[in-house]
Amino acid sequence: MSPEPALKTDSDTFLEVKNVTKTFGDFVALEDVSIDVYPGELVCILGPSGCGKTTLLRVIAGLEEQNVGRIVLQGKDISKKPTSERECGIVFQSYALFPNLTAIQNVSYGLRASTFKKADHPARTQEMLDLVGLGDSGGKYPAQLSGGQQQRVALARALAPSPAMLLLDEPLSALDAQVRVYLRSEIRDLQQRLGITTIMVTHDQEEALTMADRILLIEAGRMIQCDSPQSIYHTPKDTFAAGFIGVMNFLNGWKVRDENHVHFGNQTLTVTDNQAAPFQGKKVTVTIRPEDIRVLENGDNGENILVTVVEKIEFRGPSYRLYLRLQLDDDALESSLIEADLPAEKLKRLNIENERPLSIYCPPERLLIYQS
Asked: From CA 177, how far away is CA 187, in angstroms rounded?
């Protein structure tokens, strides 16, 4: 995951998506979506299937026309411009390579409408294949290339005309897991070397977390949150964001007792920075991530210590995922199963097994609460 990006100003804006709404008949695919994209930035549009993320990319590319809103590129309104006048290179999920053309011919095809002189096309084509590590594979046809190699050819073709921005529509989703991990690192390194502003659609949260400078999270056509991977992971705006990015425990039915405490039955949790204050007397959802829970070696009682019973243990290589059932004096809790991560060494040392009582500590600074 990249470091927190430096603060930007309006004068740095490269691409502006302003209040875009897109409908297909009665179906609202995008509803009042706005985002500023900065030069050299990689922004991932993330969300579940059918949320509108590809539609947003297509609107930016000019492949779909928005009903409401504007697209502004480097200060120029391109809302009505065709794709050919938007200075963007596009890589689709399906690669869209011509099967009857070699890699060299496929990349050269991307130069047809470029400003490069025809005499310079062979050198530019070879330069792009070298850039993506396929300099010796120019004579091969797509069927003779692996999925990862085909994707690199598609990337070289999109970059060949030297576009102002690069648009990627789930470029890695058709590849197997190992190749995906390798290629996402390659694409990110290449994007940073070239300094090209890039917008990428993905449904893979790990892909977004590891590649993006910022993540635009969309659900049902609406923008939920746009922030750095670190911020969107540690301080999600709502329960959808909390549940979609990473794994999150949701403890429902807790009630705010005062500005720093929430309780359910015989259990009380302290939160920080008066974050419970707006929810006085209301039921809330308390959240915490599995890696933030501390398994105690002794069954102590105290602030933010919950008593549980081990229900299931999953082996995950260097760690184990524990599924813990809360022990409460009230059965009305909607969700009382807590997931916690524990290093393999500690699990063996404590001899943890199913049905064993276990006390866990929930650090106040790691708890977030939302209106139920």
From this structure: 15
Query: Taking the chain (372 residues) in consecutive chunks of 10 residues, what is each chunk's mean pLDDT?
Result: 49 91 97 97 96 96 96 95 92 88 92 84 92 92 93 92 94 85 91 96 94 97 97 95 94 85 84 83 92 87 87 94 82 68 93 92 94 86
Q: Which of 291, 307, 288, 295 is nearest to 346 (CA)?
A: 295
pLDDT of residue 4: 52
Tokens standing for residue 36: 């500023």
For residues 285 and 372, the answer to whether their CB atoms sit within 8 Å is yes
pLDDT of residue 35: 97
For the record, the structure tokens of 270 come out as 């302290």
Q: Where are the beta strands (DSSP E) in 163-290?
A: 165-169, 197-202, 214-219, 222-227, 249-258, 261-264, 267-270, 283-288
Those residues with Cβ within 8 angstroms of residue 44's Cβ, 6 or more apart along the chain or in another chain:
199, 200, 201, 202, 207, 208, 211, 212, 214, 215, 216
d(CA 316, CA 320): 5
CA gap 286, 322 in Å, rounded: 19
Cα–Cα distance for residue pair 131/176, rounded to 1 Å: 23
Q: Which residue has the tokens 């990110």?
A: 188
Output the six-digit token pair for 256: 């705010």
What is the helix, strand, coil percentage profile of the chain, to 5? Answer: 30, 35, 40
Q: Say if CB 107 and CB 129 are below 8 A apart.
A: yes
Q: What is the DSSP string of 280-292?
A: TTSEEEEEE-GGG
- 252 backbone dihedrals φ, ψ, rounded to 5°: -95, 155
Cα(304)–Cα(95) distance, integer angstroms: 51
Backbone φ and ψ for 80, nearest 5 degrees, come out as: -105, 5
Euclidean distance between the first and final Cα of the chain, in Å? 31
With tokens 């999270």, the residue in question is 217
Whole-number Å distance between alpha carbons of 116 and 252: 60
* Spatial distance between the Cα atoms of 23 and 7, rounded to a whole number of angstroms: 33
Give Cα 37 distance to the centre of its chain: 16
- Whether residue 172 contacts residue 180, with contact meaning beta carbons closer than 8 Å, is answered with yes
**DSSP state, 194?**
H
Parallel, antiparallel, or unpaired for β 222-227 and 214-219?
antiparallel
